[in-house]
Amino acid sequence: MAADEGKTHLSGASLQGSQATPGGKRFILLLSRFRPAEPLDGPLKLKVTAYMPIPASWSKKRALAAMTGSIQHTSKPDLDNLVKHLKDCMSTKARKGVVIRRGFWIDDRQVVDLVADKRYDDGRGPRWAVEITPVESVKEAANAGQ
CA-CA distance, 133 to 92, in Å (whole number)? Predict the structure, then answer.
């Protein structure tokens, strides 16, 4: 994870098969490599792209169309379910006030701005691209451009 002008980037974790679905222990373990030292505080903007695998049974022509974005990923899993599970995996988990797993933020309620899409793999493999930005940084950048 790299910080860049208030942004936190999580990108490129190569996930195959069921690993690409959030919620499993392997997925949480992969995410932990990118986790900040301390959970982010305050309101956050979350930008997510899920790159889904292209079915092996597809012809080369159809697979190429999917890779270039001419065919959209309209099958399961649903985008809203993917994002919900991703946010749950990125949240700090506590029981009876004791932190069990430190996350990217304290609670996913901190996400006040969300941009999400899913598409087919573009040739670099199924993966997630995630960008987390404190809302104050978004406002500061907008004001700086005026």
Answer: 17
Give me the domains of the chain, ranges plus CATH numbers. 2-144 (3.30.1330.70)
pLDDT tens by residue, 86-112? 998 899 888 888 887 889 999 999 999
pTM attached to this predicted model? 0.76
For 1, the 3-state DSSP assignment is coil
Instruction: Return left, alpha or beta for 5; rule: phi > 0 is left, psi -120 to 50 is alpha, else beta.
Output: left
Picking from 9-13, 76-80, 131-135, which range would have the lowest pLDDT averaged per residue?
9-13
Beta bridge pairs of residue 131: 9, 47
131 Cβ partners below 8 Å, 6+ apart? 7, 8, 9, 10, 11, 45, 46, 47, 48
